[in-house]
Design goal:
By secondary structure, the protein is mainly alpha-helical. The protein has a domain of about 100 residues: Arc Repressor Mutant, subunit A (Orthogonal Bundle). The chain has seven helices and two strands.
Length: about 170
Amino acid sequence: MIDRTANLLGVVGLAVADRIGDAAHDILRHGGETPAALIVIGYGSGPSNDQLRRVLGLSHPGSVRLVDRLVADGLVERREGRDKRTIALYLSERGMALREELLKGRLAAIRPLLTRLTDVEQEALAALLHKMLFSMETTASQRRTLCRLCDNRVCTDCPIPADELAET
């Protein structure tokens, strides 16, 4: 039974990931880690390029190219970091607007998968997902990576809070 459940969960996971990717591409016309970069930078804690690269799982050159493109597109601003040795990344007004669209588009892409469930079934699923996430043994870095596309405003009692980018 567990293999069947695992198999079904894997299919649902891929369906969700595909829907999120398609929605993000429709909004940004960019794939890869661009949507996640906007979400993570939009938490507003002013991550450095190195912090962003760790969350996104990118190489240093890959992260620099991504940030350069986001700056060139007018979505991200570089500002002086907290320790004056680093550069902090913040979203521009246009970047914040696109981030909002991404977050709304992500939820809109996933919602249809839940419409056939009753309210009681949705509550049960939410409780099970919360329990699964809570029981995962993860580091702070892994949690930030898992939640790199999350809208932390809709997740009450988050089982794996990940919006803080402080070094661990």
